[in-house]
Every structure is written in C-alpha cells, then in structure tokens.
Design goal:
Length: about 325
C-alpha cells in the first residue's frame, strides 16, 4: 500500500472540513444555526465561522421588505357585497436574536405564514366593514387601513414581523350597485347643472331688467330736461315777442297809427313763411268775406288786449 495515499486522504478531508467551516451570509439575510436540530445562534451578513459537521444552517431569513397582493370580499351592514384589491407590505421586525427565532420557528414554512397573515388581514377588514354602510365604505379607505394596522401590529410582533403598509388599491361593488351609484352621480350632476343654468339665466334676466330700467330712467330724465328746455325756450320766445309787440304798439300809438296793422302784418308774414317752407304741403285759408271779417275782428281783439297790457304796464 502506498504510504502517500492515507496522507493525501487526511489532507483532503482536512481541507474539506476547513472550507466547510466558513459560511457566507448574503446582505439582507440572517442565518439561523442549529446543532442537532436545536437552535444555537444566528449569523449576520458576511463571512462567518461554524463548527463543521455539527452546526447546520437551518434557514436564511430575509430582512428585506416583502409584498403580496390580496383579493377578497366583505359584506356591509346593509348587505352590500364589497370587493377589495389590496397590496400588503411587511418585513421582519428587527435583527434581534429573539425576533429571528420567532420568524424561523413560529411557522412550518413560508406558505403557512402567508396563509395566516392574509386570513388575519381579511378577517380584520371584514369585521370592520360589517359595521359600516355601503355608502360610507368608499370614504373610509384610510380608516380601514388604520384599523387593520392597530389590530395586527401586536399579533405580527409575536410572529417577528411588522406591517409596513396596506394599500387598498380598488374597492368595488356588485354591477347593480355600481350602476345605481353611477345613476345617482349622473342625476346629481344634472341637478347641479340645471341649478347653475337657472342661476345664470336669473342673473342674465336681472341684469337685463336693471339695464332696461336704467335706460328708461335715463331716457325719461333726458326727455324731462328737453321738455323743460323747450318750455323755457317757448316762454322766452313769447316773452320777447310780447316785448317786441308792446314796443311796436307804443311806437304806432305815438305816431297816431292803428296798431292792428302790426298784427295784420305778422299774420301775412306767417302765411308767407308757411308757403315758403311747407315743402309741398297744402294750406287752406278761408278767402270769403265772412272769413276776412272774422279774421279782422280777432286781430282787433288782440290789438285791444295789447293796448290794455301796455296801459297797465305804464
């Protein structure tokens, strides 16, 4: 027998034992070491030493965040079915030895952990939704999340985990309920649109009435002022005519002439003015003897009135 062979075997076995004493734990992972099936210690990330053939790596616990999607159903207090789609974010509570032991040994495997975690969250949400009405569920998204965190934090700590976040991404109802909710929203929008349109029309009508009233007031005020000015103009004209006639009558009286000539002249001048500016209109005058006598009598009466006024003025 070759004496070198046993030496080679011993060296080879020794090298195997030496290299098996070094264990590398990846970043974000904690190694759980057992000796003959009993927990011994934990290994942190990096290069670690272990007793070969005695210590065994039972499991490698990830301390990174993990997520899972949930889909489940709940029933409100008014018997409406509510369908949830949620995203659960959780992680190991910390890197303490007792926490790692709970994570490693509380459940048989990862599948059982997830089953317990999901069922616990679903039960907590169902219990909370069962006390609420259908119309209130959509507005209670943050309240539901807060309720679940309060209920699960202590339970998860005993398992060695912590609930980082729970997001309710989708909350839906049965098709009939969704359709009725859409109809309610549509009717409310139509009602609001009708109210806004009515208010806009009322404002438009009110402003138009105010504008029309103001225009009528302005036109009436302008007409009043114009009528006043016309009246004042006519009064001033008549006053000036009276003054002129009084002065002319006085001059005629001084000259010992009949003052009716003034009135007759004014009458003929007026007829001449009508004829020149009538623009084709027909003026009918009474040319009979009776008409002439009636006109002269009217002129004479006016003359007597002017003479009386002149005397009173003196």
């Amino acid at each position: 027998m070759n004496p070198v062979l046993p030496t080679f075997i011993i060296v080879f076995v020794g090298l195997i034992i030496l290299f098996s004493s070094f264990v590398t734990i990846k970043q974000g992972t904690i190694g759980v070491i057992t000796v003959f099936g009993k927990y011994r210690r934990i290994m942190h990330p990096g290069l670690n030493l272990k007793l070969p053939l005695i210590e065994k790596i039972y499991s490698r616990i990830s301390i990174q965040n993990r997520s899972v999607e949930l889909e489940f159903q709940a029933v409100t207090i008014d018997q409406a079915n509510v369908y949830f789609k949620a995203m659960l974010l959780y992680s190991v509570l910390d890197q303490m030895e007792e926490t790692i032991k709970n994570v490693a040994f509380k459940f048989v495997d990862e599948r059982n952990l997830m089953q317990a975690l999901i069922r616990t969250i679903e039960g907590s949400i169902r219990a909370y939704v069962a006390t609420k009405k259908q119309a209130d569920v959509l507005t209670l998204r943050s309240d539901i999340v807060q309720h679940v965190k309060e209920q699960l934090d202590q339970v998860l700590e005993t398992w060695g985990y912590h609930l980082q976040d729970l997001q309710l991404n989708d909350i839906t109802f049965d098709d009939a309920v969704m359709k009725s909710m859409s109809q309610v929203v549509a009717s409310n929008n139509l009602k609001a649109a009708a109210e806004n349109e009515g208010q806009a029309l009322l404002i438009t009508k009110t402003k138009a009435a105010e504008a029309e009233g103001n225009a009528i007031k302005i036109a009436a005020e302008a007409e009043r002022q114009a009528a006043q000015l016309r009246g004042q103009g006519i009064a001033l004209f008549r006053e000036e005519v009276a003054k002129g006639m009084s002065a002319a009558a006085e001059e005629m009286h001084k000259a010992d002439m009949d003052t009716s000539v003034i009135l007759f002249t004014m009458w003929t001048e007026s007829i001449k003015h009508f004829a020149e500016n009538s623009q084709g209109n027909v003026i009918f005058l009474d040319g009979s003897v009776d008409g002439m006598e009636r006109t002269m009598k009217e002129v004479m009466s006016l003359n007597l009135m002017n003479v009386d006024h002149a005397r009173k003025g003196k």
